[in-house]
Structure formats: C-alpha cells, structure tokens
Amino acid sequence: MLQKKISIFVFLGMFVWAGAEEIVESNWDKSLLGGVNLTQTGFDNWVSGGENAFAWQLNINYKFTQNLPKTTWSNTGKLAYGATKIGDADTRKSVDELKIESVLTYKLGSSINPFVAVTGKTQFAPGFNYGDDTETQISDFMDPGYFRESFGAGFDVREGMKTRLGLALKQTSTTDYPSPYADDATTTEIETFKSEVGAESVTDISITVSETSILTSKLEMFSNFKSLDETDINWDNTLMIKVSALINMNINVKLLYDKDLSTKRQIKQAMALGINYTFI
C-alpha cells in the first residue's frame, strides 16, 4: 500500500517536472530556496527551573516558470518538516507539509487568460493526537492525500497579485484513517476515497514591504456544488525578513477551515530565524 501511495505522488511530481530537460533553456525562470532553523536551550543545576529543549525545521521552496509567446507554465513546490524535543519527552513533529502545483496558462493578449491546473498535498510522517498519557496516530503519508484538477480563467489584478477562478475536481484519498478526512459519517459504509466537484478560487500575492522584507500570501477556496455555503479555506501567509546574506527570519500564519474536519477555524503560527541558501 505504501508503494501505491508513493507512486501516486511520484506520478504527479513527474507531471510537474515533465519539462525538466528544457529547464536549461533561457525561457525558464528558476528558483530553488532551502533553509534550516535551529533552536536549543539547555539547563544544568538551574535553580529557577526549566527543561532542555531542541527544535529544528527544514524548508525547501522551488518555482520553475516557462514563459513562451502563447503560454506560461508555472511549477511550484513547498516541502517543510520540523520537530521539537522538550525534556525527556519523545520528539514530536511541529511542521509537516508536502505540496506541489502546476499551472498552464494560455495567453490571449489580455489580463484575463484561460488555465488548467493540478495540485497535490500531503505530509511526510505520521501525525499523532497526544493525550495525557497516550498518543494516538491519526494520519500518515498520503493518508490523507489531497488532489485538485481545475480549469477556468486567470486574472492579473495588479503587479504582485493574481487570481484564478474555475471549475475544480477534488479528491481525498485515505487508507487507515478515513475519518474524518474521506468517510461520510452519515452512511454505514466506511469510505476511504472522496471525490467532489465544485468551484475553486486561488489568489497569490507577493508584496515588497521594504528593501529587506517580502510578504507572500496564498488564499485557496473550494466550494462543493452540493454545499456552496460550506467553503474550504486554506490561507497561507509568510513574511520573510532578510537579516543578512544568509540569515532570514520568517513569520508564518496559516488559517484553515474545512467543516468536514472541524466546525471551527484552525490557525497555526510559527516564527523562525535561521540560515537560508538560494541554490538557483
């Protein structure tokens, strides 16, 4: 089963990287940025109290865009993983995300252009719900895995801001943890795969706040045609502040809403200072 999960994501990755042999051509704009953040605290006979702590996080972001007279093919990816260890407790992951996206846009010579897009999202390692004395696994690699295929029209709203709107197909795939990701609680049969048809809206913003700071924001919304009043929202915001040539500070705030998972909005905030390196 693990091989099947890997093969699904590899297939999508191959689609995104299908033009790799042509990347050396001048019509490709390339960006590959990696960073690592470390935090450590140690105590020895510290009468005020405290616990030893160690945390690390690895981030890799890439963007390969091919600009041709009639088309633009943009391929982006985000890989993030981090863990924290406090005192004698076991190491627990703090960040875990694997996401790739490919968008092909046909240029009509205006600010509104048709597009087709595919997106895949999952995690690297198992996820746990930690109780007082127990830990319960609730997720794993490709369990769940989210995929979207969409087509519609893209709009260049202004410099640094673009949005697209269209018809989308969304699939949620699970194996050992169907609930609450893919299973419909209203039926007696346990479902490990869910397919939805709806409308998708994706807005990308990149703003230069100052000479040393950039704000990027990505707002993704999906509305199932069966329940248009229940819109899934994924809003990812990152403020990157350049401290020196190699050291950056990143402040990330992510807001999620999916009624199938929780009737309340979910918020995750992280701030990290570490070494970043631009490979290409």
Radius of gyration of CA atoms, rounded to a whole number: 21 Å
Largest sheet, order of strands side by side? 1-2-3-4-5-8-9-10-11-12-13-14
Strand content: over 45%
CATH arch. level architecture: Beta Barrel
How many DSSP helices?
1
Gross geometry: flat
Content-based structural category: mainly beta
Order of helices and strands: HEEEEEEEEEEEEEE
CATH topology: Outer membrane phospholipase (ompla), Chain C
Counted beta strands? 14
Q: Main sheet?
A: 12 strands, antiparallel, barrel
N-to-C CA distance: 36 Å
Total domains: 1
Helix content: under 10%
For the record, what CATH class applies? Mainly Beta
Uncertain parts: 20-24
Averaged pLDDT? 87
Short description:
The chain is mainly β and 280 residues long.
List its salient traits.
280 residues; mainly beta; twelve-stranded antiparallel beta barrel; 1 helix; 14 strands; 62% strand; flat
Account of the protein in words:
There is one protein chain. The chain has a twelve-stranded antiparallel beta barrel. Strands 6-7 form a two-stranded antiparallel ribbon. It has a single domain (2-39, 54-278), classed as Outer membrane phospholipase (ompla), Chain C (Beta Barrel), CATH 2.40.230. The chain has one helix and 14 strands, in the order H-E-E-E-E-E-E-E-E-E-E-E-E-E-E. It is mostly beta strands and 280 residues long. The two termini are 36 Å apart. A hairpin with a 4-residue loop joins strand 6 (127-130) and strand 7 (135-139).
